[in-house]
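Inputs:
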Amino acid sequence: MVKIRIDGRSIEVPGSSTILEAARQNDIYIPTLCHHPKLTPFGGCRLCIVEIKGMPKPVASCTTQVAEGMEIATSTDAIEDIRKLVLELILSDHPNDCMVCEKTGSCTLQDLAYAYGIRENEFSGERRTYATRDGNPFIERDLEKCILCGRCVKACDEIQGVEAIDFGYRGFKSKICTTYEEDLDCEFCGQCVAVCPTGALTGKSWKLQGRPGGSLREVDTICPYCGTGCNITVHVKRNEIVRITSAEDTANEGWLCVKGRFGYKFASSPDRLTSPLIRRDGAFVEAGWDEALDYIVSQLGGIKSRHGSDAIAGLSSARCTNEENYVFQKFMRAGVGTNNVDHCARL
Amino acid sequence: MAGLAAIFGSGAMTNSIREIEGMDVLFIIGSNTKESHPVIANRMIKAYRRGARIILADPRKVPMVKFSDLFLRIRPGTDIALLNGIAHVIVSEGLQNDDFIREKTAGFEEWKKTLESFAPEQVEQITGVPKEDIIKAGRLYGGSRKAGIFYTMGITQHSCGTDNVRAIANLATLTGNIGREHTGINPLRGQNNVQGSSDAACMPNVLPGYQRVDLPEIRQKFEAVWEASIPSAPGLTATEMMDAAVAGRIKAMYIMGENPIITDPNMHHTIKALEGLDFLVVQDIFLTETARLANVVLPAACSFEKDGTFTNTERKVQRVRKAVNPPGEARDDLSVIMEISRRLGYPMKHRSPEEVLEEYRQLWPAMGGITYARLEDRGIQWPCPTPEHPGTEYLYKDGFPKGKVNFIPVSYHPPAEVTDKEFPFILTTGRNLFQYHSGSMTRRVKTIEEHAGEPYVEINPEDSHRLGFSNGDFIKVISRRGKIRIRARITRRVSPGTVFVPMHYHEAAANVITNDALDPDVKIPEFKVCAVRIEPAA
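Outputs:
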């Protein structure tokens, strides 16, 4: 542990901490754009700069380790001027279309522009313009909104191990792209979308469906696919799921796969069964619940009395909850009177 | 799972997903983790990047090969030979954990003798894995005391599935790589609540909590709470039900949320079984291939539309919360089953999912401390016997419930069906990244269908060149049980002589051709190996 002072406060932190980590652990705010707690630090955006007593220039707090006796100022006039300047430079080359941007409400860049009161921009000049060309069905890439923070590049490499994208070109022409700008060859896990601090990367299926906060409801639940049990947040507009995200502080650290993140629309598919069906003369006919249940009970009861309970078998499902599975086997054993009950564990 | 439970006491992952990051060696066998459990693969990649060594055994060059130090490309169905070969290396180089063997195991000396025929040279002949690599694998796994084994259906879906699991258990027992943090045996469960369905005893031989139904004292405990009598004879497994239906012994089936036509082996046999029933009820969210054969179809709610709990692969019970209402007249499975039970003369008193869990936890001590109130903020891993207990991250910290662990001799037998002149290719099946299981959910997601909506068979370029067809051509894959017409995907992911078909696509369903040969102990079908021939499609 080392002792340092941040903004006049004496604190003790592990010697391996960066200044940014030390500040955040002690609830001291330093703005960032390129930093992400689950990814290696980059030091690219320069918003997290701080002054250290005895050092001639400000340093990036995300890449500077603490040292014994360090005295740090996180918010001097000079620092705040530089931060505002950095933001103005970023915003000078950023579409000002927050009104229709999917990221509005959860956009770090927007939050910072708001915090620094940036409306007019004295650096307005040449803009990067890119045509959308990518045909993948999952991820919308709007490179004009990209601030080159590199979080997506790091997530794709460090978390997913795919390395589908990286920085390409130089200077003003720099952009995040695939090798030789070929079509995206990726797993579409959407980790890049999850870490993007602006509206550069969004889910295609989210488009114009509603933005987090506002009128959407959020419900925390569990992914319906494999056995990993990823924690998800379901965003609901009226009675429809319009987006799935995962919080960073969950067991899966906010990471999901293509099915978990983008595979939710089966729930609102027009193919969903909406009424009990009874087969009559070879074709299904819609029926009321009462009629269907009475029919089932009379058939099962009849077979049980004619052939015995063991002529009946039940298959339950790994899609169903613990409670439903418990009640299903209880019904088969105590209600029907057979141990012929199984599910798909072997399949 | 039953194989694992018989050896150590519990049929579940012994570690938690978090612990993967702290492992020194990971041995992944028969698990295409990056496609079937992508977020667990993320942890493995993290471990790899931190310097963990990864051994990967698979017939296919699956995506995790990129993150492995040693790739053992085995012939499908030869896992036992490989595992015994690795054990042979460990014993002959003296890398076994003598203290662990002395204190916690039985039968080592006798078992050791059964390894004699598994010297690396012999194992190379059977598995196709070079003997140098077998020796390397033995040194890596045997040299570590923080090693985890990971497997899925690539191990279990064989006619020798139980023996495969026993051979894995022997390796962990030999090295003492079980019962501590960051080391253990980890079967990754393929479906969101397959652990929970097993725990809750949708299984023919046990009551909730793996308590044997044939033991009178267990039945009495449940009968007192359920206020009903419970039959003592174990029932039929899913695959046996189909045989019994064909034989006319099963007259009616109630299928809740399953699609056996797609997921069971030998589809024609399954269809025959279900068509022969006097009465079939299917309760599902879609009119699946199975539901189309039903007499009555009941519309169910999906997991976004109900409250309850799921138990994930690391034994963690987590809250499922209702986000939207079910469409139309659809109802949650719980209320439907309770209503049918009531009308059949067995009313249940539960007024909510929470009340069901309250009864369940009374009857299974490992769940005893898990309540909805405690699950509000985070999941809890069983065993969790009391309301104060924090849950259990890894199993067997305080020894094994059965006392000593037995080494179990396992001999190698070839798969139930081997290649011959008429059927010269080995077919193996599995999942891909984008689709899920029988496809009833993912195939209704437009974006996923656009990207991965067409069935395919993976075949090596050597084979396609010899047989004279190109990438994207339609070919026929034919077994003794059936044939499918499917596009060829030419790739070195599969070795020459092996082809792979993903299981998800009803229009070219892998399970039309797979073998319904069963493991004799746990009745799991041999999805992973059967013999086929390839013909150009007209």
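Remarks. The first strand of chain B starts at residue 25 and ends at 29. The first helix of chain B runs from residue 2 to 8.
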